[in-house]
Each structure stands twice: as C-alpha cells, then as structure tokens.
Amino acid sequence: MAVPTIEEVLSRVETGPWNWLIFLLGSLWGVFGAMQALASAFLSPAVDHWCRIPQLDHWTKQQLWNFSMPRTLVRGDPHHSQCEMYVRNYSLLEGVAWEDRLEYLGEWEQDQAGTSPPTQPCDAWEYDTSSFRSTLISEWDLVCGREHLRSLSQIFFMVGYFFGAPLGGYFSDRFGRKRLMSGSLWAFIVVSVLGSVAPYYPLFLVCRLVMAFTGTIVYQASYILAMEASSVRHRSLVGIMFSVPFALGNMLLPGLAYLLRDWRHLHLAISVPVILLIANTIVLPESPRWLLQKGRWSEAERELQKAARWNSSKTFDPAWLLTALTQMKAQAEHREFRQQNGNDNSSPGGSTTFREGLKSLLVFVRTPRLRKISLILYFVWITCSMVYYGISLSSSNFSVDPFLYMFLGGVMELPSYTLTVPFVARCGRKAVLVALFATCGTTVLVAPFLPLDRNGWGFLAVMMASKFSITSAYQVVYLYSSELFPTTLRTRGVGLSSMVGRLGAIVSPVINLRLGAHHWAIPTTIFGCLTLAAAFLTCLLPETRDLALPDTVSDIENGGEVTQSLAIVPEEAQPANEHKEEEAPSVSAV
C-alpha cells in the first residue's frame, strides 16, 4: 500500500473557507507592500526650489526670480536657477515694493540692474508648496549638491528587498511561516512609525531599509502559506490572484497622497493600518506542509482536522488522516535514518556545507547551454526590475500629474496579471516576451520625439502602454524562467534570478533622479535600449511551450530541450508576480 502524500491529504480535505481565508488574509499585505514600494514618488517628489532671500519675502515668486535668479536649464527646459542667485545688496530692498526697487539700490546695483551680475550659491531655499506641503527634499534640503541623497530613500528600500527575500526564505523554512510572519509584522509596525517621526535623514533611511526587509518577509511568508495550503487544482489561480492587492495598493496610494500633502502624514497613513494584519497572526494557521516537514505530526493533524471541519468535507475520514500521517511519519523516520548513515564522509566543521553552497551557485555557469540561459535570464530580470520601477516612479521626469500617473499605473497592472495568460498558452513564452519587451522599448524610445504635450493624455497613454508591457513581461519572465531551469535547479535558479534582478531596482532611482535631472528623456532612452536588448537576447533562448520540463543539467546540455509534449503546464512552473518576492509555490524564496 502506497504511503499517502500531502497532495492526497489536501485533496481529501478539499478546498473551502479554510483555504480562501488564508488566501484573503495573506494577500492583504500586497496593498500595504505596494504603497510602501512606490511611496517615494510622493515622499520625495521633484519640487521646484530657489534661493531664499528673506529681505524679498514680500515680492511675488516671479518678481523674485526675474530680479535675483539667473536663467538656466532644468531637465532640458529653460528655468530659473534653483541653486544660484545674483550678488546684490538685498538689505537695501527690505520692505521696498517691486516698482520702487531701483530707487533704493546703491549706485553699483543700479549700474548692474540691466545686466547679469555675478552669482553666488544659495545658503537657504524656498520650495514650491502648490502640490506638496512638505517632502523629504524640503525637510532636509536634499538639493544643490545634496540631490544625490534624494535617491537613497528608494535605494535603501530596494536593498532591504535584496537581503530580505533570501534570508526571509531561509528563516521561514527554519522557524515556520506563521511565526516569522508574526515577528516581522510587529517589527515592521514599530520601525514604520519610527520612520514617520524620524528627526534625521540617516535614521529615516535605516527605517526604510528595515521596513523593506521585514515587509518582504511578511509578504513571502503569507504567499508561501497560501500556496502550501492550496491543492494542485487551485494553486495556479491562487498564485495569479495573489498579485491583485498589489495593484489595488498602487491605485490607493495616489488617493492618500492627494489628501495628505505632508510626507510625515502620508508615511504614517500607509504604515499604521498594517496593525490590522495583526489579526493574521491570530487567525492564520501554520502551514501543514511545514509542520509535516519538521515532524510535528500532532500539530499538522490538528490543523488538517480543522481545515476539514471548516471546508465541510463530506468525504473526509478523520481515521484515514491519522493512518495516513502515521505512515508518512514512519516513511520520514526511515528516510532520515538512511540519510544519517550516508553522512559518515562529511567533513567536520561544516566545510561540506560551504562547498555545496558554492557549487550550487557555480553550477549555473559551468556548462555551455545552462550558462547561456542563466546569463541571459539574469540580464532580463535586471532589465524588468529596473524598467518597472523606473517607469512607475518617473512622473516627475514627465511633468504629468503625479497622482493621476500613479493611479493609472495601478489600473494598468490589473489586466497585465491575467490578459497575457491566453497569449502565452497559445503563442509561446518566447514570442510573447519578445513582443512585450519590444513594445515597451519602442514606446519609451519614441516618446521624446512625439509631438505630444507631456501634460496631455496622449503622452500619458504612451507611458501607460509601456507600463502595461513591462508589468506583463514580469509575469512571463517568472513562468519562462521556471521552465528553462532543470528540475534539480529550478527553485535555486528562479530564486537567484529574482535576487539578481533586485540590482536593477536598486539602480533605477539613480537613473531616474540623477540622470533625469539633466534631461527628462535620458532615463527613458536607457530603459528603452535595455528592453530592446532584452528582446534580442530572449530570441536566443529556447521555446518551452508544450514541452516537458528538463529534469537535469544533462537534459539541457544534450540538445537543450525535451520533446515530450505536455497537456498542461506543471504547477511549479506557474507564473508569480515580481512584487511577491518569491519564485515557486512550495519554497521560501525571493
């Protein structure tokens, strides 16, 4: 008699309220995760600024600019200088009306009135408050020689993603999904509130890093829990629909930012409601799969019995479950005994573990075909991550309404999660991915040359087309990567690719803010060139539609593809979303 598997147990338990409660409560983090990941668009937006001259506070901005500021180029357009002012004796003009200014200037200032006097750097600034009352930039004067510090808030956040995903996966496997999610959730709440009242910019940056680190752990632990509680039949649906709350958070964020124009109030508003998720630490169960893996048989039985009661499984027999778990326990103990007897040759001090860890990374570049696949996928992942966040957070470069731009970007994400599925099934992964990259690259490259007003709907539509394309491409990349790597390396391959892709998200704000400050079209040109390069390199990858997945590196090297036809895509190859920070349903990952 064959020993039952966890899949057979879940099939007996059936799918019902127990499963959907885990899915709904777990996926709610996507709303808050989206708002935090994209918050820099409203926490540190590009706001106009100029030298503050206290003696001329009674003049209008236009009068002040005309009299005290030289003309220069800002983002490629004529503009008043934001970092310099003319050298004049402004104390003579304190309380003097604009029309009477020449009467009160000294002889030298009168001679210079019609020319361009020498300039000097600003020692204090005023900021445009028409859209935002307070930002990180105005709070800590991140301008004129300090503008490079502006991008650090997003960079630190993405660095938190970079380290949180793999470490979170490791600790989740070791301590359990629910326990790690609970601890990380509390840490996130405390640090996010601290960030909202941080008196110093370095402290705020550290808070953002820790928020991303703990938030990533909460999201991936929730995702893994939902996937591990799902049966094979519903796993792909759960994997796709888990991304929807991220789009909802993307649309909710600009609404809150529109109502709350102060960065501290906004940061608090998107952080404090996370307290609602404390209910997850009470209501959600521990993953039965993890409990079984750790040999905690009685706890696993209790959770599965509860699941059967909640789902009202008519065909479920509690006695069968007890027998099945007893058999599974005996099999696990036998397997553990054999593994222990086979570890006699291991070196002391854990050196074998270190060598195995190093080999697990080098194996992706050791053989020719797998090396080509791995390196191309790394570039594709970096491009996806860089361009996605680059386009999502680039409203300040386009002179468009930042609230409308962010909202429409969220709207574009909803169909991008699902509309590509039938095309991928019918046309193949490679063709669809190439088309999406080419569309994104073409739209952002031609945008600067179109006779469109950057404040108009036509230009906004072009950018939304690129946002839809790159978001859809991310969905296909997850699926395609999981099918290109062999079974023996699939989890590590997709996880490592996703982690490498975070480098693109880290670099993205530097491109947007530093290079975009010189001309708004420079970032879009870089993004367009990268996506077209990704489209070209994708053409060098093999197609995987209707083909059996390779099981070993030898399957890839001996021809590159396995030709056995498949009726459906295996569950472990189902697509997941980039914002989830994971790669496969049954693993902890990125």
Give a written overview of the molecule.
The C terminus is likely disordered. The protein is 63% helix and 3% strand. A hairpin with a 2-residue loop joins strand 2 and strand 3. It is mainly alpha-helical and 590 residues long. It has 28 helices and six strands.
- Taking all residues together, what is the mean pLDDT? 79
Distance between the termini: 38 Å
Low-confidence parts lasting 5 or more residues at pLDDT below 50? 344-352, 560-590
Radius of gyration: 28 Å
Query: Strands across the major sheet, in which order?
Result: 1-6
* Quaternary class: single chain
Q: Report the biggest beta sheet as strand number plus sense, adding barrel if it closes.
A: 2 strands, antiparallel
Beta content comes to under 5%
> Structural class of the helices, strands and pairings?
mainly alpha
- What's the number of extended β-strand segments? 6
Shape: elongated
Helix content: 55-70%
What is the number of helices? 28
Ordered list of secondary-structure elements with their pairings:
Blueprint: H1 6-13, H2 17-27, H3 29-37, H4 40-43, E1 49-51, H5 61-68, E2 71-74, E3 77-80, E4 84-86, H6 101-104, H7 107-112, E5 119-121, E6 125-127, H8 136-140, H9 152-175, H10 177-196, H11 201-228, H12 232-241, H13 244-259, H14 263-269, H15 278-283, H16 288-293, H17 297-311, H18 318-341, H19 351-362, H20 368-392, H21 395-398, H22 402-416, H23 420-427, H24 429-446, H25 457-484, H26 490-515, H27 521-538, H28 553-557
Antiparallel strand pairs: 1-6, 2-3, 4-5
Helix pairs in contact: 1-17, 2-11, 3-11, 3-13, 9-10, 9-11, 9-26, 10-11, 10-14, 13-22, 17-18, 20-25, 20-26, 20-27, 22-25, 23-24, 24-25, 24-27, 25-26
